[in-house]
Amino acid sequence: MKVRKSDIELFLILVGICIPQGIAGIGVVSKVSTFIKLIAFLYAGILVLKKTVKLDIFFWTWTIYFAIMLASTLINSGNMSTLVSKYYPLLAMIVLAKYFVMHREADTIKVVGILFTGILVLNSILGVLYQTTLMSDVAVYLLGIRTRINDLAYIGIVFAFALPLIYRKGWIWTGLGCVSAIHFIINQKVSTSYICIPMLILLIVLSLKKTKLLTDNSIKIYWIIILINILVISGGMLSRFGWFFSDVLGEDATLTGRTNIWRSVLATMPGKWVLGHGIGTIRSFLVVTNNTTATHSQLLNELYNGGLVGVALFVIIAYLVVKKCKERGDAFAGLVASGIFATQIAMISEVVCDSNFYNIYLILCYYLLFVVPPIYHKNSQEELKDLFQCGEAKNEFK
Predict the structure, then answer these.
(1) Which string of b and e fits 78-100 if b means at least 16 CB within 10 Å?
(2) Which of 218, 394, 393, 206 is nearest to 318 (CA)?
(3) N or C end: fewer C-beta atoms under 10 angstroms in the chain?
């Protein structure tokens, strides 16, 4: 695999934006990350001002989402510093992703696949080293506390599979990514992943063997998972499946107190349903009421921060990517959708977007779906036709 200047630039930008939580608080790491983010933001601004990159519906959907969070934070006297530091790198990344993927033609899958796999490997090594010295619930690994594996495991495995799928080599990265993620999950007993990993494996098999079955139904699957999220956090499903959580996963009926947290968060929403409470207000509330710092549900987190408007926009952003997966209908599209579905199942009981991995995944994959040549198991007239259409879509979308 030849390394080009554009690959190195993209790698450095992603390293700066995707700093794992376990090392984000280290002084020198934080300063380097902030510097890279600022450079990335300026870089993106220049590209927009020079009209090198056209702003599209994906960019504007993200921008409206940011604007809602900004309005809610201002209205509720939230933490503007947290808001800005979280979202301005993502705004820059949308422009830079389109630029590197569609103009510079960086080997994005290679860059992201190697980066994500490397992080999973290091995180797994630290999991072994710390297991003998610290309690697992207090230990901080590369990705952060043990449940932060949910932020990267599924999308990391997807990119690890995409490498050999695209380049016809690189299975070693697939093995490293899968083994490292699964080893850490088993070693640290991360219950959420006990559901998500088997589901992801099934979806990957479908994407490779029964591609059209998965991609043709991807939008339906997406909305079903969103509905499941809503039913679980609202208390409509857990009573029916208590046996599964207690007998299979070894969890109590409250999912280690999560249902109590969800009820207390929902109780704060009257009068705040439209725009929510704003960024930076949730932690102090949770510490006082539940002795925790997380809602343990991504959709509930979005609801608290941005109200129903924020949740709707958050859901629409991922929907745009899934919609593109259905339109493409090939194995790569199936892989991308698989990562989204597995992560959204994890969102039921975890907040996976505190780190930027999933957001970066959505941004990069949206543009990759326009340019990666369609992948089928056998050459066919359909493949040749789709290859031509992919090139036309790339040229038109620039």
Answers:
(1) bbeeebeebbbbbbbbbbbbbbb
(2) 218
(3) N
Q: What are 61's two structure tokens? A: 């959907």
φ, ψ (nearest 5 deg) of residue 256:
55, 45
Would you state the torsion angle of the CA atoms of residues 312, 315, 316, 319, taken in this order, to the nearest 10 degrees? Answer: -160
* Tokens describing residue 306: 């941005």
- Supply the pTM of this predicted model: 0.89
CA 375 to CA 383: how far, in whole Å? 7
Tens of pLDDT along the chain (398 residues)?
A: 577 888 899 999 999 999 988 888 888 999 999 999 999 999 999 999 999 999 999 999 999 999 999 999 999 998 899 889 889 999 999 999 999 988 877 688 999 999 999 999 999 998 887 654 444 456 788 888 888 899 999 999 999 999 888 887 878 888 999 999 999 998 888 888 888 999 999 999 998 888 888 999 999 999 999 999 998 888 755 555 555 555 555 555 556 677 888 888 898 899 999 999 999 887 777 776 766 667 889 999 999 999 999 999 999 999 999 999 999 999 999 999 999 999 999 999 888 988 889 999 999 999 999 888 777 544 444 443 444 445 445 555 55
Report whether 57 contacts 98 (CB < 8 A).
no
Which run of H or of E encompasses 246? none
Q: What DSSP character marks residue 373?
A: P
**Separation CA 208–CA 220 (nearest Å):** 19
Residue 348: CA atoms inside 13 Å, Cβ hemisphere, count?
25
User: For the CA atoms of 197, 304, 260, 287, what is the dihedral angle to 10 degrees?
Assistant: 100
Longest dimension (CA), the chain: 62
95 DSSP β-pair partners:
none
3-state secondary structure of 51: coil
Residues 6+ apart with CB under 8 A from 263: 235
Q: How far is CA 192 from CA 76, 217, 234, 317, 338, in A?
A: 33, 24, 18, 24, 16
CB atoms < 10 A from the CB of 291, how many? Answer: 9
Is there a contact between 65 and 313 (Cβ–Cβ < 8 Å)?
A: yes
E-state strands within the chain: none
